[in-house]
Amino acid sequence: MIEAGSLIRSLSGRPAARNFHNFVINEIGLGIVTGKFPVGSILASDAAMMESYGVSRTVLREALKTLEAKGLVEARPKVGTRVSPMSRWSFFDPQVLSWHFYARPDRHFYESLFDMRRALEPRAAFLAAQRRTAENIRVMKYWLHQMDSAGGDLENHGIAALEIHRTLAETSGNVLMRSVTGVVELTLALALRQSAGAGDYLADTLGKLTTLVAAVGERDASAARSVVEQVIDLDEAATMLAIKP
């Protein structure tokens, strides 16, 4: 499991694993996503990995089982542990998504992330405007205040923005809308990293999210949907700064 917001917090430095099990998962998983362990390749033997990572066979086996459950590897008798094709990876898994933050910029993958946001978030905003409660608005306004107070602090700005998106998904009343939270967090982290704290991006997102919360508060579903689309456009434009023309 990965805690919501942990990827944005890593903008100030890659977080350390909490235990040996997570350490091995992160090292191998990140190696697969970044291409250190290519698709179709066979991982080193258990003995070699135990020595390399300084863990017991039990810890290594449990880590590999976790990676297999995420679709990244497949263990075969007399063959070893093979890196699975990308088509089998669990891209809705927040941890799998988070490893892409450290991977080489990929226009096609980035476009896929924003396609997913456009498929779900505008509908979530539309429903949220129809179903919101006074408490929902209070929570979103609290996070708007946190964004405004963040100044140029990327981590605080990003966490506050993520919480507004999370609250919006919850307010929609559709539990499946929450499944996009990991995608939202990755794109926010990418946008913040690529914008390098550019004042225009931070100010523009704060302005758009303020307009969004106002539309939801006024139960203007069409306006809420439209503003979310503009927010996604801002995030995508900032993220694509990593891609050379």
From TrEMBL:
Gene3D superfamilies: GntR ligand-binding domain-like (1.20.120.530), Winged helix-like DNA-binding domain superfamily/Winged helix DNA-binding domain (1.10.10.10). Keywords: DNA-binding, Transcription, Transcription regulation. Transmembrane segments: none annotated. Pfam families: FCD (PF07729), GntR (PF00392). SUPFAM superfamilies: GntR ligand-binding domain-like, Winged helix' DNA-binding domain. SMART domains: FCD (SM00895), HTH_GNTR (SM00345). Signal peptide: none annotated. GO terms for molecular function: DNA binding; DNA-binding transcription factor activity. Residues 18-86 form the HTH gntR-type domain. This is FadR/GntR family transcriptional regulator. It comes from Candidatus Devosia phytovorans.
